Write the structure tokens for this entry.
Amino acid sequence: MGERRLIAALAASLLAVAIPAPATASPAAEHALVVVRPQATDRFWEPLTPAKWAFAHRQVIMTERGDAPEGPRRPFEYAIVDKGPELGSLRYSAEVRIDEPVTRNDRDVVLIFNYQSPTRFYYVHLSQDNTIYPHNGIFVVDDADRERIDDQWNGTTGAPPAIDDTDWHDVRLDYRASSGEIAVYVDGSDQPLMTATDTSFSGGRFGFGSFDNYGRVRDVTVAGTAVRP
């Protein structure tokens, strides 16, 4: 754990130099750098449907599939970290696992960031299928059905499958608020698996969930610029 704390602190320092805070941040907040390591308890994570979640062994566990929400097409079930400041630019690091059996090809988990409301946020969809529009990509939900924004999607296929087993995988999400640049790295690769650029909005909370499957996350560390106290 000491090594992860060191990495998080270094990431915060890099963000201070390389990633300006959003223009909407107040003068007092735009230089505020924070490292958030939410404990795996319901005191830090707020699920849409608490009965579908468990917190054990330092893991945040989605135990069953969610239900399709009314309104824009978007992930069915997730939990948001509702403690601490809202963040602009950030580095979101975690270990994730898809618990759904590999016989279901559309299985996924999602990382959520810039969460402003149930119909305004970004998410990264990590799946073993990369041949269907809503799978294995980067998406924005902006008061409308989710829209795919990653550079890798060519209309028929996307980035190579992110997760095709039931093992744990290291995932890192980098987001630069000033430019809207997004990059997703899997299992320590120095080359991003997915990239995108979008400036629909910036600043918000982060979370974890699944579009219509289930899985779990642990060792969450998010280093970023605080945009609200």
